[in-house]
Structures are given as structure tokens and as C-alpha cells.
Write a structure and sequence with these properties.
It is a single chain. This protein is mainly alpha-helical and about 500 residues long. It has 2 domains: about 1-125; about 165-495, Neurolysin, domain 3, CATH 1.10.1370. The protein is built from 20 helices and 3 strands. A 3-stranded mixed sheet has the order 1-3-2, sandwiched between helices. A hairpin with a 2-residue loop joins strand 2 (about 235) and strand 3 (about 240-245). Helix 1 (about 1-30) crosses helix 3 (about 60-70) and helix 9 crosses helix 12. The longest helix has about 30 residues, at about 1-30.
Length: about 500
């Protein structure tokens, strides 16, 4: 009897995956090659598909199957049991929202994303504001439907990293501020980075992107690269992973590290266990764990001197004129320049978490009722002056720079900082098992990916994120690994006391 239920549930999961696949393809298309005028039609399609998915996920029949599987967990494959457990949690989040609100929110997100692209180009926050206000109001309602007695922002954080809350993040960011701000303050003399801003034709940068994907071990049969305003990674299954980048002809390192960052996400997805690849648990377990991998490859590996030494001959082959008078060491120093800047995605490792802190504090106040959306530009600019000591010249390089709020991803930003800290603790643990930097210097990242696959990737969502990472670390999470790593690296780079 239970096996019949499991088979029916598998059929349901295949159908659900097909709907998610279709919506994911449209979302990817919308951010890469879709004509601007197609937005309203795509929004309508999203509405129809989201309504069908809502009915599937919240139906009594689906709940009955999941409950029966959990009641007979000892007789069912553990991957199906875990899928049912997580699906029940997700159902609770969705079913408490009236269907008409859920569908309208999906349409509103699609519209907001389209308006955001145009508003960013025009540096016009007022154009985007009404759409942002709609999304914020909807997110507040949904959080209160789900957990009426819990702080709204805590509920939203938990959706991206189970168990994460403002109390934990306040302590985390306090540690980061206390330990890193004094290091930032000591930095004075800056290296010459002018060669990074010579003319790097996009055609040559595309060739370089292909090379970087090869170094990361991303099989082009299963992973492609596209171009968009704000780079991202989409994974439909481990067999269809898509990364994106954005090229700047006067900033070669921007796309370089975008490709490595998104390649880190793709490496995670590509190494999920084959046994769960077609199940909902066959993907990254949380946003912080996912960002730990993108930030790990982008910074800890990608900005290391051994990595630069490994790839620099190829760089000089592709960019003959631009780098003919530059050494690998000079390039390493340049791409690790630490200086307060406007754009989060282009920020150096040392100041990066300050960018995230601005967004965290703003989101916390938005959802605690202490800040209105209309006041975001003013507060954004004030906090950038306070945290980073710089003036924000316009909304395009200020409050409109990130795409996250345009797609309703409130509570996501802290994942970048926590993920960065995870990566610093991972490398310390990995160094006990591998001669990491010998492999990196050879340009051979396979042993590193194999280690991460064994400890993180293959599990997908089988384990809770906190438990997964604690087992990978071999100890509880400790953010001082992150602050110690950055203090040591930048003290050596800048000869600090």
C-alpha cells in the first residue's frame, strides 16, 4: 500500500518539477534575452502557472500522500522521506496565503523586475517605488499569515537559512565590524591598478570566460554561460545549470570574478548526488551554504596568488597588449586592492561585508516598521557614508544597484556575508586533508571539488544546513575564522602592523 503511495508521489513530483522548470526557463529568458515589451505577457503566464502550482502543492491529496509517507518512513527510501518533510514545511508557508494573493504576488514580482531594469538604467528610484512597496507589503502579510506571533524579518531570514534570525546576525555582524573596521582604517598606500581598466574587448573577455569555466571543471555539455544586467546562476537540475555574467570593457576583473563566483554556484549544483538529482532535494541546501561556495571560489581560491600564477599565462595570451607589462604578482595585488566602493558585487573581500550590513540593517528596519520604502535612497546614502565613508552619486549606483528586492528576495543578503565566513572556516578544515595550494598553483581544482563534493555537495538538501556545515567544519561555526583570514591576508598585502 505504501509503495503505491510512493509511486503516486513520485508522479506528482515529476509534474511539479515540470512546472518549476517551465517557470525557471521563463525567468532565465526574462533576465537574458527576452524583448522588453514581452513583460506583461510573461507576467500573465507566470500567473497561470503559479496558480496551477499553488493548487498542486496545497491540495488535500498532496498533503495526504506526504503524511502517509512520513508515517511509514521506515519503509520508504530516505530521499523520498526527506522530500516529503521539506515539502510539508513549504506547504505550510504557501497554504496559509490566499490563492489570489499568491498568484498576484507572482505577477507583481515579474512586473517589478522589468521596471527595476528600466529604473536602474534611468537611475530613477521613484519609477520603481510603487512596485517595491507592493512587494514589501505582500511579504509582510505572508510572514504574518505563516507565523503571526514571530518577528516578520526573522520569518523571512528563516526561509533562506533555517534557524537564522536577527539576534544571531546582530552578533555576527558585530564581530565583523569590531575586527575588520580597524584593519580597513589602517590601509593607506594603494597599488597601481590602472592596467585593470585598459580596453578589454568583450570578444576577448568571452574567450577568457570559457577558459575560466574549464579551469573550474564545468562541463559545457551541462553548463552554459549567458549575459545579463545582474549576474546570477539558475539550476534546473544538475544536468542543466546556467551561469551569467556582465562585461565591462574597462574593467576586466568585474566579469572575471563574476564568472568564478557564479561558477562556484554551478560547481555545487553540478556535483549533487545522482540519486537525488531529479528530486526537489537535489539542489543547494540553503542560500548561505550556496553563497559559501560562490564566495569560496571567487575569493579564497580565485583571488589567491597561487591561482593567479596558474591562470596568468593564459590571460597574457588572450590579452596580449593589455597585460604585456604586468606580472602575475602585480595582478594579484591589484585584484585584492581594498578600498571602500559603491558597488557590492565589485567590492573587495575586506570591505564586502560592510555592503551586506547596509542592506541587512535597511531590511530589518523595513520589516520592523521603522523605515518606509520611500526613504530608502536617503537612508542608503547616509549609511554608505557612515559605514564606508563614501558619497553615493545616484540611485543607479546606490539603492537600485541590486536586483534582489525587485524579485522579492528580502532576507537573502545576509547569506553573502555568512557564506563568506563559512568559506574561511572550510579552507582551514580542507587544508588538514589536502595540499590545497599545490593543486591550485597547478590550476588543478579537481581535488578541491572532490573534497567539497564528499562533505557538502552530494547531500543536496538531505541534511539541515547548520548540521551539514558543522559536520564539514568538524566543529561549530565560528566567524573568527573569517575575520582572522581577512586580517592576515590584508596585513600581509599592505604590510600592516
Amino acid at each position: 500500500m505504501i509503495q503505491e503511495t510512493v509511486e503516486r508521489y513520485r508522479t506528482y513530483l515529476e509534474k511539479l518539477r515540470a512546472y518549476e522548470h517551465a517557470m525557471g526557463l521563463m525567468s532565465y529568458d526574462m533576465s537574458t534575452v527576452m524583448p522588453k515589451g514581452a513583460g506583461p505577457v510573461v507576467g500573465d503566464t507566470f500567473g497561470v502557472l503559479s496558480e496551477a502550482m499553488y493548487d498542486m502543492v496545497t491540495s488535500p491529496e498532496t498533503e495526504a500522500m506526504q503524511r502517509e509517507i512520513l508515517e511509514h518512513r521506515d519503509e520508504v527510501d530516505s530521499a523520498i522521506v526527506r522530500t516529503a518533510e521539506l515539502a510539508m514545511e513549504e506547504r505550510a508557508r504557501i497554504a496559509c496565503v490566499p490563492k489570489d494573493e499568491y498568484v498576484q504576488y507572482t505577477i507583481d514580482r515579474t512586473t517589478a523586475d522589468q521596471v527595476w531594469h528600466e529604473a536602474k538604467l534611468k537611475s530613477d528610484f521613484q519609477m520603481f517605488l510603487p512596485h517595491l512597496e507592493k512587494l514589501i507589503a505582500a511579504q509582510k502579510r505572508f510572514a504574518l499569515y505563516y507565523k503571526p506571533d514571530a518577528p516578520v524579518y526573522d520569518t523571512m531570514l528563516d526561509a533562506y537559512e533555517k534557524g537564522l534570525n536577527t539576534a544571531t546576525l546582530d552578533r555576527f555582524f558585530a564581530t565583523v565590524r569590531e575586527r575588520l573596521v580597524p584593519v580597513i582604517a589602517k590601509i593607506q598606500n594603494q597599488p597601481d591598478v590602472s592596467f585593470l581598466h585598459r580596453h578589454y574587448p568583450i570578444a576577448e573577455q568571452r574567450i577568457f570566460s570559457d577558459y575560466l569555466m574549464d579551469v573550474l571543471g564545468l562541463d559545457r555539455k551541462y553548463c552554459i554561460i549567458g549575459e545579463t544586467e545582474h549576474p546570477f546562476t539558475t539550476s534546473f537540475t544538475k544536468y542543466d545549470v546556467r551561469i551569467t555574467t556582465h562585461y565591462h570593457e574597462d574593467a576586466v576583473e568585474a566579469s572575471m570574478y563574476s564568472v568564478i563566483h557564479e561558477g562556484g554556484h554551478a560547481t555545487y549544483e553540478r556535483n549533487i548526488g545522482d540519486d537525488i538529482a531529479r528530486l526537489p532535494i537535489g539542489g543547494g541546501v540553503s542560500m548561505s551554504v550556496h553563497e559559501s561556495q560562490s564566495r569560496f571560489f571567487e575569493n579564497i581560491i580565485g583571488r589567491s596568488e597561487p591561482f593567479i600564477e596558474a591562470i596568468f599565462p593564459k590571460m597574457q595570451e588572450i590579452f596580449k597588449e593589455q597585460l604585456k607589462d604586468v606580472t602575475a604578482h602585480e595582478f594579484y595585488v591589484a585584484v585584492n586592492k581594498a578600498e571602500p566602493s559603491l558597488i557590492r558585487t565589485e567590492a573587495d573581500e575586506l570591505t564586502y561585508s560592510l555592503h551586506v550590513m547596509v542592506r541587512y540593517e535597511l531590511e530589518k528596519r523595513l520589516f520592523n516598521g521603522d523605515l518606509a520604502a520611500k526613504d530608502l535612497p536617503k537612508e542608503w546614502n547616509r549609511m554608505y557614508k557612515e559605514y564606508l565613508g563614501i558619497d553615493v552619486p545616484d540611485d543607479r549606483r546606490g539603492v537600485l544597484q541590486d536586483s534582489h528586492w525587485a524579485t522579492g528576495l528580502f532576507g537573502y543578503f545576509p547569506s553573502y556575508a555568512v557564506g563568506s565566513a563559512y568559506g574561511a572556516q572550510l579552507i582551514k578544515r580542507m587544508e588538514r586533508d589536502l595540499d590545497v595550494w599545490t593543486f591550485v598553483r597547478k590550476g588543478d581544482l579537481r581535488p578541491i571539488v572532490a573534497w567539497l563534493t564528499e562533505h557538502i555537495y552530494r547531500f543536496g538538501c538531505r541534511k539541515e544546513p547548520g548540521k551539514l556545515m558543522e559536520e564539514a567544519f568538524g566543529a561549530p561555526f565560528d566567524p573568527t575564522y573569517y575575520t582572522d583570514y581577512l586580517t592576515k591576508k590584508y596585513s600581509e598585502l599592505y604590510c600592516l602592523d
